[in-house]
Every structure is written in structure tokens, then in C-alpha cells.
Amino acid sequence: MQANALFSTGGWRVVGRFLALVAMVLAAGFAAPARAELEIDITSGNPQPIPIAITNFAGDNPNATQIGQNIAGVISANLERSGLFRPLEPAKFVQTPDSLKVGVRFADWRLIQAQGLVTGTVSQSPDGRTRIEFRLFDVTAGQQVTGLAYTVQADGWRRVAHIISDAIYKRVTGEEGYFDTRIVYIAESGPALQRVKRLAIMDQDGENHRFLTDGRTLVLTPRFSPSTQEITYLSYFNNRPRVYLFNIDTGRQEVLGDFPGMTFAPRFSPDGNKVIMSLATSGNSDIYTLDLRTRRQTQLTNHPGIDTSPSFAPDGSKVVFESDRGGTQQLYTMNADGSDVKRITFGQGRYGTPVWSPRGDLIAFTRLAGDKFYIGVIRPDGTGERLLTEAYHVEGPTWAPNGRVLMFFKERPSGQGGKQRQAKLYSIDLTGFNERQVLTPTDASDPAWSPLIP
Questions:
Q1: What is the rounded CA–CA span in Å between residue 48 and residue 197?
Q2: What was the pLDDT predicted at 341?
Q3: Host H or E run for residue 210
Q4: For residue 71, what is the enclosing H or E element?
Q5: Mean pLDDT across the chain, nearest whole number?
Q6: Taking the complete model, does pTM exceed 0.85, yes or no?
Q7: Which of 41, 154, 288, 436 is the most buried (most CB within 10 A)?
Q8: C-beta separation of 331 from 344 below 8 A
Q9: Spatial distance between the Cα atoms of 420 and 155, rounded to a whole number of angstroms
């Protein structure tokens, strides 16, 4: 048994009382299994989705039954959006949730072409705690392949549904999931010339949405800390861009340092102890780090070109950034101390907004070539460039924590004469398939994907 993250009755905010999420493995039935058929290679170009049956979780009272239905709905939506699973229509199901507690009739599930089967139960104790169990079956092999149980307060069911989704994704693909995460982004509203931009946060599926700033000041480029509890972003104060820290739990905002020039493009170091950003002084922009404990700043680049948009490699040893020092806007890497600067892109057009993958193997970027914008990826040594999507304007890639999915924003003209603008968030697989809109209450731009919630 192990204790996982703490969370509160108010969605993800940790306010008031804390509720422990306790998980344990359901060991029965899957020790030393034969080779399972329920596997998928997500490194291939366009894998066929696995047909999977996700039944409502059986409840021991009407409220638990409703929670069980809600959990099944969240899991089904998560897995379907991944593009790797095809949830089957419940009308085709051959067993009820209660009959599944007695035993799985694998032959019947094979008749409806189910390769995977997800079942579960929800039970509630008098003290208000809820126990949620789930099991994943390989229908072809006729065996359970994983199972977990969680004990939470009743309002913790949504997070458990995301954690179960991650467990299924990992068991089938062999890689970590990305469903138990949040997105911070810029919520936009109003006409193009008077755009209101607010900091907003939501779960990766759009639930638990809330605004973090009121729109009185323009905010840009939010980025999560590794702990997921802080956000660094740019905000204008008296028309001067400054870098801020925002504590999600307390709502406290803090100006990061008192610099003589303008600061922008902030991003945390992998250990969360530093923020790397651009500082403009005397008309020139270079890259600096700021130690969050000592508030000591260190200059990494010193070049008359514009150096900006830095992003650390996941091991903290290197930094990728964009610069026009070679005459056009291109991507460069350097050691974390600023030494050994190397140009890694040489294509036509301009490259910007580089972000190092959490896996360390790729760098995502925005490219403007001709009259189109592209989202692409390239290896850190500058080889293997691939363009994943294109549009009138796409920008701001951010990685899911497993390094297999990217999110970005897409902007297009709208309204009479195309004088207005519409901005939406999208996600796409690393393979360039499964592009999907991420629904938000308002227009949206500049997303940042959190690590898995601790």
C-alpha cells in the first residue's frame, strides 16, 4: 500500500482539509500471466485503436452507482481522446456491472469484438470515504492484467478516474499516461484590438476550470513548476513586461526579481530551483537564470543578437533557445552554463518557441515558412526534423509529461472581413496523427501542460 497525492474538496486546490488518496494493487488473478494480447505499439505511424469495453462501476447504493457511472464516463472519454482506444457502445455489452462481480464471461465479450474490458466497483463507508476498485481484463487471453483499489472522499472520484486511465494506458502501451494532469493557458476574450487575456487553469479534460487573474493586466507565457504548485508567467505592469510567480494553492503572486530591463519568456529548471528567462537591457536581449533561493542571477548568453525562449533539457544539462544571431531566427543549444553554443536548425523561414521533450529525445518548435506556420519536432543534434501540423497560425507547443502528445494553439481570422480572431487549443500525437481540439470556455492560447500530479 502507498499513499499518493493530497487534494481537497475544491477540485485541485489544496484549501481547508486534506484528503488522502490511498491506492493498493488488486493482486488476485494476474500473477504470472500468460502473454497478453492487449498491447499496442504507439511508436508506429498510425496505430489502430483497440476496441475496449468500459462498463459502469457497480455501486453498493444509489449514490455510489452514480459515481460508478461518472467514473466510467471519464475513463471512456480519456481513452477515446488518446486515439489509441475505441470504447464500445454500452448497448452492446453482454454483462451487467453486477454480474461482472461474479465472473467475466470472456467468450461473450469476444463476440462483440472487445479486446479489453474495464470493470469496477464503488462502495461507501459510514464515515464518508469511498473505495473504488478497477480491473482491466485482456479478453483475448481471458485474464486480468492489472487492478487497483483507491480510498478517497466521495468528491475525489474524478481524479481517481484519471489515475485509472493512466494505469490502463501504461498497461497497454508500456509508457506512462498523461491524464492526471492540468493545463494552464491564456484565456482570451474581446475584439482583436482590445483583447482581454487572463491566466486560466483546468484539468487536461477541461473540467475544474477557473481563472487565476482578472484580466486587468495582460498576461502571457505561463509555465508550470515541476511540483505543479507554481506557475511562472509574464505580465505587463505600467506597460513594462515583468516575470511573476503564482502559487496555485494560495493565489499569491510575486514579481520575480528587480531587474533593470524587461524580463520575459520565463520557464522553470527541471529541479524547480531556477527560472530561466530573457532580460532586455540597452536594447539587447540575452538569457539569464535566476536562483529562486538566493535570487542570484547568472547571464548565460552575451551576444548582440536577440536570444530568447530558453528551455532546459530534462536533465538540466543543456538549454535550447531561439536567436537571430545568424541573421535569421533559428534554434540553438548550449550547455547549462552558457558554453558550447551550437545552431541546430538551418531550414528556410524562422524557428521559434522551442521546448525540450520530457523524454529528452526531441525538441518541439514553431516554424514560419512562406505564408504558413508549422508545429514540428527535431532531435537535439539538429537531425530528423518533422513537421506535425500546419495552419494560418499555429504556435506555442507544450509536451504532455510522457513526451508522446503535444498541445498548441491555432489562430484564424474570424468575423466580418476577417478583422477579428479566433484562437483555440489543440493536441496532436507525436506521430502527427489524432489532432483534436481541446475545449475551453473562451478563446485560448499559449497552453502549458503540467507534469503528472504528485
A1: 39
A2: 98
A3: strand 210-211
A4: helix 62-81
A5: 90
A6: yes
A7: 288
A8: yes
A9: 41
